[in-house]
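Throughout our pipeline, every protein is held as a single compact record rather than as scattered files. The record that follows is passed on verbatim for readers who wish to inspect the format:
___
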Amino acid sequence: MNRKIQKLDETVVNRIAAGEIVVRPCAAIKELVENSLDAGAHIIQIHVKQGGLKSIEIRDDGCGISKVDLPLVCQRFATSKLKNFDDLYHLNTYGFRGEALASLSYAGHVKIISKIPESPCAYICEYEDEKIRPSTSIKPCAGTNGTLIIIEDLFYNNPIRLKMMKSASEEYTRMVDCVMKMALRNTHVSFSLKRDQQIEPDVHTNGKETTTILQNMKMLYGADMVKDMYETIINTDDTPYKFQCKAYFTGTQYSCSSKNSSNSMTFILFINGRLVDCQPLKKSIQQMYAVLVNKQISPFVYLDLIMDPTTLDVNIHPSKNEVRFLHADQIIVSIVQAIERIIVAKSAKQTTTTTQLTFHMVCLFIHLVFFLNQRICYNL
């Protein structure tokens, strides 16, 4: 059948595009948290209902959105972070595409309350399909400096996507994982995440300027893991593929399988401050652990990689979860070898210590047997 080619309606195009960005509630959380961080927030409070499907509220104390910018804030490709294509190679922000809020306005009902320090009051606005919701307008209201974004009825107009969400608890678990990872690196920001009618948050960090990564790890992932944590800085300034990587990783004695039912490695990767995924690097580290350890364990690996932004392509997918970079093979080998050297050295030291301890215990046992024999002979 010969069908005539026709241009899709703009609303249809935007709803299709929105489905790539807001795949599930935790993707919305990630986009909104990144916006808050770009706004210079020091406090980020998140409250969700029914796993984020009923509502997501995220409040920050960032720079806020001015009244004149509110009409544009949910429009597709409207952003303050990018002016021309070359800016992609010099990014110092998380967002740059100007699609997150637009996509959320197609996937759910969006309400924004924001106040900038120069304004005597906050302003509230509701959005639908990129535009200010019909029969509503930008209105003044009470509010503190910063922004509150409320997303309600996520995927109300996408029943198939809604049915794909297995359960509210599973979606919330994904949110907890995402927020914990983002809170881990941003030690200067106070994060909190709670659900439904909870009073105490499931995720909480102090957000002090003096807080370290290890302190955040202890708070978020537990003290037991930190006890078996190794740390190193990988620096390759003397190579053509210059990069610096701060790495924290558990040794062969720790397994987070009790916290991770999938019995797989917890892998957290930041590249130039952006939480991303790199499957080749992750698989290489997994294989390294598999070779070093006979038994199946679930290690924890955190990598904070800094590289020349001109060698990094962040514009792979609208979700911004995936990146590609030059000299990937050499960089992956350098990181894996550095981690392997430390684990092998520490394991050898532990083995030596264990051997020495065993020798001393044997000697003690021999002396004890000799002493008991002497006592027996004396009594006879």
